[in-house]
Structure formats: structure tokens, C-alpha cells
Amino acid sequence: MNGDNRPAGEPVPDELTALQEELRSAERAVVRRTDPGATALLVTGFMLVLLVGLMLPWVGYTPGWALLAGMENQGVLVRLFTFTALGFGLVISALALATRLWALAWLCAVGCGIASINGLWALWTRQVGVPVGEPGPAFGMVLAVIAIVLLAANWARIALRR
């Protein structure tokens, strides 16, 4: 006798083999998914705040979307933050919420963490390393940094919940 109460050497019926494969595939699909629960509403709200931050002025009177599009040059770090904030904070976050894949939740947690470091670094350099007469960071950049830090914390909470 083996583990499934059949005599050794007796073949497994095809129906049971197909059922066993179906159960294994269902188990793999459940293991790869995450359920953000009520945190999904927070993530969506922070994504909206980040989107509003991209519309507001970041440096002087230049909005974040203009820095993203390359219409103005305010430094490499500010531009890097616009790309990482848009990529991880909006695009991949939307994909992770739509698909609920655990791997994308981890990617958002790590990516938003990197984007928050980029944002804090860009904010700091615009406050400290700006030549005299050049504008410093504006409200939109500060709002975007706060939103991306909160997104990183919430995505880490979702990813670690599994």
C-alpha cells in the first residue's frame, strides 16, 4: 500500500490524475496572489496624491510632468525621481492592484523604496546644492516624496502580509 490507499503497482485512474493536476495548478495560482484588502484603498489614494503632485510645481514654477517630459532640466536627480515615481508609484502599482500578483507587490515595495530614496535625495540637493538665484523645491515635489514614501510603506505591508 502506498500513501493514497491503493495497492502498490495499481495504476492511477486518468480522472484522478487530471483532478490532481487541476488542484496543483489552482494551488499555484492562489500562492502567487495577494489580497491587499483595505490597504488597496490607501494605495489608490496615495497614487492619486502622487498624480496630483506631478501636476503641481516641483522646482520653481515647473510642474513635475514637464520635468518628466524633459521640457526643463533641473538636474539628474530630479529627473530620476520623476521616472522612478511614475514607473513604480503609478504604473507598476496600478498593475499590481489590477493583477494582485505577489511578485508585483514586492516589486512595488522595493521600487517605491528606491523611488523614495531618490526623491529624498533630489529634494535635499534642491535645498542644499542649488546655485544662488536658482529656485528650490516647490510644494509638488514635497507632496510627491511624501506620497511615494507612504506608497513604499503600504506596499511593504501588503507584500509581507502573505
Structural write-up:
This protein has six helices and two strands; from the N terminus they run ααββαααα. α4 packs antiparallel against α5. It has a two-stranded antiparallel sheet. A hairpin with a 2-residue loop joins β1 (57-59) and β2 (62-63). The chain has helices at residues 14-32, 39-55, 64-69, 76-99, 102-128, 139-161, and strands at residues 57-59, 62-63. It is rod-shaped, with a radius of gyration of 23 Å. It has two domains: 1-32, no CATH class; 35-161. The model has no long low-confidence stretch (mean pLDDT 86). With 162 residues, the protein is mostly helical. Keywords: Membrane, Transmembrane, Transmembrane helix. This is Transmembrane protein. It comes from Pseudonocardia thermophila. The chain crosses the membrane at residues 38-56, 76-97, 104-124, 136-156.
Enumerate how many helices there are, as a single number. 6
Shape: rod-shaped
Mean pLDDT: 86
What structural category arises from helix and sheet content? mainly alpha
How much helix, percentage-wise, in residues?
A: over 70%
Radius of gyration: 23 Å
Poorly predicted residue ranges: none
**What characterizes the major β-sheet?**
2 strands, antiparallel
Count of the domains: 2
Determine the strand fraction and express it as a percent band.
under 5%
N- and C-termini, Cα separation = 37 Å
Strand order of the largest sheet: 1-2
How many E strands? 2
Order of helices and strands: HHEEHHHH
